[in-house]
Amino acid sequence: MEDNTARFEKLLVKNGLKRTAPRLQVLEILSGRDSATSQPYLEQVMGKDADRVTLYRVLQAFEEKGIIHKVLDQQGTANYAICSDGCSAHEHHDEHVHFNCDNCHKIYCLDTVKIPALKVPAGFKVDRLNLIATGLCASCSDKVN
């Protein structure tokens, strides 16, 4: 089994991106979390390893290449999660429900809960589809019960 660094380096090369320390670090952080991650959190964790502009460019490049997808939390802050293997710069396949926990404020990708195809009127073209559910995540609902 290959280590994460080798896997992430292959992912960057496959997408025509240079293998830089900030890019590898962002992939490592995002893949190690069970919920979507905000840019402010990434800035905090990365510290002096990447300035705000570098981090913004990394996230923008990853989103454009289909490596990550963005979901907004209840305050409108962008959060990022790793895309499925089938995503690319030309097509995203992340048609799953996102879950915002009202208690811990984490955002979860519910990959097994698919959003059904949406039939729109003639002349309309859907570029992205996002369904956000809110409530208590499994961890927070266990604490309530």
Descriptive account of the structure:
By secondary structure, the protein is of the alpha+beta class. The protein has one domain (4-144): Arc Repressor Mutant, subunit A. Helices cover 35% and strands 21% of the residues. It contains 5 helices and 6 strands. The strands form 2 sheets. Strands 1-3-2 form a 3-stranded antiparallel beta sheet. Helix 1 packs across helix 2 (21-31). The chain is globular. The mean pLDDT is 88.
Set out the fold topology.
Layout: H1 4-14, H2 21-31, E1 37-38, H3 39-46, H4 52-65, E2 68-72, E3 78-82, E4 96-101, E5 107-114, E6 131-135, H5 138-144
Parallel strand pairs: 4-6
Antiparallel strand pairs: 1-3, 2-3, 4-5
Q: Summarize this, please?
A:
With 145 residues, this protein is α+β, with helices and mostly antiparallel strands. It is built from 5 helices and 6 strands.
